[in-house]
Design goal:
Length: 183
């Protein structure tokens, strides 16, 4: 299997890509507490495959419920500690703001990805953003990454034009492997 040559990353959204979302009327929501967290099937195996390809694995996640006062930063951090202990994730980058805060880190703005790239010497043009929402796709594209949209058919706004559309993380990994093989 061919390995990545430059320092590249796979940026992963958390809810819906790493762990199961809570669906209400077809819309996805994050788990509120640690006991609600369910790592999706095959995630560990897929992340290990990405590691074998030489990618740095960085979770980039919006957690606006903290700004809204309906979630605590401690709960979010306990979920990340659990995921970090159980999965080969290198780093978590979190935006705790809401839209009206107009920060640069809330997806669809690319701030989390750009900050992670600067902190870890990542080549964004050779990296990928994998997400299940339009904000993920747009953030990846604005940062200069290839975007992979996992389409679960949510009753939610759809991304304009992702680079690739798949239906699972496993399919996303296959897309990446195929791209690397033809390079």
């Amino acid at each position: 299997m061919m390995k990545v040559r430059t320092r590249c990353a796979i940026f992963l959204d958390r809810d819906g890509v790493i762990n199961r979302v809570i669906l209400h009327s077809g819309k996805p929501y994050p788990p509120a507490i640690l006991t609600d967290v369910e790592i999706l099937p095959d995630v560990r195996e897929n992340l290990n495959k990405l590691r074998e390809l030489g990618f740095t694995l960085i979770v980039v996640t919006n957690q606006p419920d903290v700004a809204r006062g309906i979630q605590t930063r401690e709960n979010v951090e306990s979920i990340h500690a659990y995921l970090h202990a159980n999965l080969p994730i290198d780093k978590f980058m979190v935006c705790y703001h809401d839209d009206q805060d107009e920060c640069s880190c809330r997806k669809p703005k690319p701030g989390l990805l750009i900050d992670a790239a600067l902190q870890n010497s990542i080549d964004l043009s050779s990296s990928y953003m994998i997400g299940d929402r339009w904000r993920d796709v747009e953030a990846g594209q604005r940062a200069g990454c290839k975007s992979i949209f996992i389409d679960y058919g949510y009753a939610d706004r759809q991304p304009m034009v992702p680079d690739y559309t798949v239906h699972s993380l496993t399919e996303a990994i296959e897309v990446i492997k195929n791209i690397i093989e033809i390079q």
